[in-house]
Amino acid sequence: MTDAYKSLEARFRRINVLSDIGGMLHWDMAAMMPNGGANARSEQLATLDVMANELVNAPDMGDLIEAAGGENLDAWQKANLAEMKRNWVHGTAVPSDLVEKMSLAATSCEVAWRGARADNDFAGLLPKLQTVLDLSIEAGKAKAEALGTSVYDALLDQYDPMMRSDRIDSLFAELEAFLPSFTAEVIERQKSEQAPTRPTGPFPVSVQNKVGLDLMKAVGFDFDHGRLDISHHPFCGGIPDDVRITTRYDENDFTSAIMGVLHETGHAMYERGLPGAWRNQPVGKARGMTMHESQSLLVEMQASRSEEFLTYAGLVFKAAFGGDDAAWNAGNLHRLYTRVEPGLIRVDADEVTYPAHVILRYRLERALIEGDMKLADLPGAWNEMMGKLLGITPPDDKDGCMQDIHWPSGAWGYFPTYTLGAMAAAQIFAAAKKAKPEIPAALARGDFSPLMGWLGENIHGKASSKSTDEILIEATGQPLGVAAFKAHMENRYGG
Amino acid sequence: MTDAYKSLEARFRRINVLSDIGGMLHWDMAAMMPNGGANARSEQLATLDVMANELVNAPDMGDLIEAAGGENLDAWQKANLAEMKRNWVHGTAVPSDLVEKMSLAATSCEVAWRGARADNDFAGLLPKLQTVLDLSIEAGKAKAEALGTSVYDALLDQYDPMMRSDRIDSLFAELEAFLPSFTAEVIERQKSEQAPTRPTGPFPVSVQNKVGLDLMKAVGFDFDHGRLDISHHPFCGGIPDDVRITTRYDENDFTSAIMGVLHETGHAMYERGLPGAWRNQPVGKARGMTMHESQSLLVEMQASRSEEFLTYAGLVFKAAFGGDDAAWNAGNLHRLYTRVEPGLIRVDADEVTYPAHVILRYRLERALIEGDMKLADLPGAWNEMMGKLLGITPPDDKDGCMQDIHWPSGAWGYFPTYTLGAMAAAQIFAAAKKAKPEIPAALARGDFSPLMGWLGENIHGKASSKSTDEILIEATGQPLGVAAFKAHMENRYGG
User: What ipTM, to 2 d.p.?
Assistant: First the structure.
């Protein structure tokens, strides 16, 4: 190991600790902070961003990275160095003052979004959202030059390293070749089948919370290293040793909160499973948001909506909520959780119509980033595309183009990872079941450990030591593709 | 304004934002964090400390401070520069690696203390506590050299700028000249008077919490800029724009939680009242812990235990807890809250016996810091001195020398500020009532606004623009002294 490499490890350790601190403060902002703390919090987050950026941009960083390579590094150290270089290229592309401006604008817009969404006031949000968009484009341009990509691809690369929009275009085209007609068939078929019985509420928040905690335990969440709280928009935050997940409750419908908890628990298990020996080094981080979403969707969509797990979940629900037997049996829950119905809200969408929500956002954000559309035209374009893709028109912007926190918080280029993640989830779950045939029977007992054991070894523990495709090829035999997702769709929803 | 001064303001802004971030993480550690997050949190807090220390210790800082002075600064800027210099002298005295070691050791010891205290395991805590003590002495020695004081005074100066132990010795001697015989007289007299009726529980945590929130509102706490939560040891944390106070609940006794809330609300009001124009500058910070404790004790001891306020509080308690009329009338509550009885626990002590708890800690920590006593001998020395000063011997270390978080967290030299604060509180409250005779009648209506208005102008808003004594002289006509405290004791407890 060279001195240069050792010195880089020390620097990136500090950079990553600053980013971890930002993770805790972001969680607090969403789950705990009173509104009056927003300005001070913006300055705190901006200061952390700027200081981390200053460290990444240190004048001698490029020389150190150059000097650190060589044959004396092992595979993980080499991968760590490559990730350092990736961080450095992204970091040096954007000047410090722009980093600070973006951080301040995003925090302030995120707070404004909470109020504006509640008031259905897109015009009120517009100025702050425009600032966030303009600054994101400015940063994207700078990164595009450094990476040799388009502006949109440079933003995408922040969330899914090495993913490019031409690949997304072709994957999404494959999806679009079968999803619309498949969706129509499924809806038609479900009309003629037994309708699910919807359990009747109210479902007290305290009981939903307890069910959420019980199911987190079943998945394997370690409460000595994490918490469950409430926020407007469910998310998984914090750090690997202290994962903070959140959900939101509706006393008339327990489905959304519980599936939200399972989704975020999937994220949390990935974070917890990252290799402890590489904490606070770039190579020890999750591989990217496609892989991250694959882990949340694997738990939420693949495992938790399987008839096997629903057998177990039904017993938990019945014990917690009481009520009618018919509602809680696995067959009924399976019909309930696989009901396909186009809706307004992405996070509430079933897995068949979900990709349409993502394709819509992917197209609109590309148009906005590439300057093909004005932000003021977003509500109209959104509503028109919802009509085309899902056959419904949002009655307002609250449940239309203002429903997600991503754009207000500056996360342009993030949305595609949800559907890429869904594809990866199907591919990984199929491989896991092939390698460990006992997985479904264990899920029926509420036991995720065979699945989590396999994921720990084949996905979580590899962190960023390889690319998404390399990890997928080792784990599943194939790079990211549509086939397994399509097979899963046909298996679960086909005639 | 010189360029040097402007540059110093920018630097100290960043230093203070880092310290604010630490404040949020400390709150989280005590109120939210699962135990498994402790190691990562230690590293986060240490990184913040080290980075702030590096900024304070920048090689050109001394020259900048030298160059920044002059006639073109206004009074607040001059005071700000003086505070910057104070921070710089404290900061440069201690080498970075010692700062980091101290921060790591304190965080780790604080976590160990929680478990060890529950297990009554002083021997188990000893190694970590010894490390914290040794590092504190090492830092104290370095600071003593820079400040030209004794080691203990250098530690004290961190919490109460410009206070020295010879002054404490003389103030405490004045206290000791009257307190022991006075305490004995009060106890004797109370035996012959009507005993207070103790309201009978249980008092559900949720109801105590609601009462706490109601009384915080009465004091003037702004819930758009703060929260109330639970922790092992009640404290006031966070930042002026987002004050996080905590308490702990006992379902069999509501007194401790509620008075804890009022105490911390006093701290919170001081933080909230600091001048917004000087946020994140040294001069905009609270003057020190003596002044801080004066504000918490003014609310808790002076105002909230007055017969006037207890008239209002009785109505709140009765509406919340129900039960017997006799327990909730102001006369009974006043007897209850002014009952003098030597006890084991400092935070539960009445105001007459409280100074003895502080004098004990002050003597023991001086002996430990000055090397006159071994840490292993602390439990024995503690129990012996408890016998001498208060006539009781702790049955265990849990409720003896392990009851406070201060020493495990490295806060040696902090304890005297509680009793110095109690003296200042009496002095300030007397002056406030003289200036605004309507204060007692307003308190009887649950209205703290006349008192808080006066405090805002005469104490809170002055922040660190003047010394503790200068602020006290302007507000009360006198430097810090024992007279008003003695008068208060005689007035409330005398025959």
Answer: 0.90
